[in-house]
Amino acid sequence: MVQESWNSNPEAVQYSNEDVLTEADRDHFLSLLRKMSSTLSAQKEAAKALWQLMKKMPSFRALFGKSLDAIPQTLSPLSQSKSGTIETRSNAAATLFTLSAPDSNKAFVGKSVALKPLIDLLDEGHPLAIKDVASAIFNLCIIYENKSRAVRDGAVRVILKKIMNEMHVDELLSILANQKAVEEMGELGAVPCLLHIIRETSRAHNKENCIAILYTNCYSDQSKWKDMWEKKIQKESKK
C-alpha cells in the first residue's frame, strides 16, 4: 500500500526545475528501472523512489512512456507471484497507477502485459495491495482499449467477486460497463448484485453504471442474453 513515508527517501534526487530533466535525472530514472528487476530489497527501494518521482515531476511520466524497457522492468515484481513479497508487488501496482496518469502512457501500459498480473493480484485480494491494484486497473481502464483488454484477461470474474463482497465498488464497477464484459456477467449471475447496488448505494455514478450495464443487455442485445437477463430481473424485482 502506498505510504506517505516514501517521501522521506534518503536517496531522493534534488531538482532545480520541475519542468526540465537533466542527463543526471534520466540516468537516475533508468537506474531505478533496472533495480525493479534486481533483488527484493532493491525492488522495494526502487518502487518507492519511482512512485515519489512520478508524484513530484510529470516530466518523469513522459520519460517513462519513451523508455522501451520501462514496462517490463516495472512489471517484474508483479509477475513474481510466488517469490515476490506482497509489499513489492503492491508498490509496483502503485507505481503503475502514477505512471499511467497521461492517456498516452495508459495506452503504452495497456499494450504491454500489465493488466493480467494486476488482475491476478486483485484476485488474491491481499489487504496491503488491493487498494493500489484496484486504483491502477481503474486508471488504466479509463481508455476503452484497455477496458477491452482487461475483459479479455479475465477481469470480469475477479471484479464481480470483489463487487459482490462490496470491495472497491467505486473503482471497479465502471470497468464492467463494456459490451463483452456485460455478456460474461450474464453467465456469472450479476443481475441480483447490480439491482442490490441500485437499491442500496447513495452514489449516483454507481447507480448509473449499473443501469447502463442492465440497459446494454436488455435493450441492445437481441440474442439469448436479452431473454436471460430479463427473466433474472423480473425474478429479482419480485423479492
From TrEMBL:
Q: What keywords would UniProt list here?
A: Ubl conjugation pathway
Q: Which domain of life is it from?
A: Eukaryota
Indicate whether Chaperone appears among the record's keywords: no
InterPro entries per record = ARM-like (IPR011989), ARM-type_fold (IPR016024)
PANTHER family recorded for this chain?
A: U BOX DOMAIN-CONTAINING, U-BOX DOMAIN-CONTAINING PROTEIN 9
Query: Which named protein is this?
Result: U-box domain-containing 9
Task: Give the species.
Answer: Olea europaea subsp. europaea
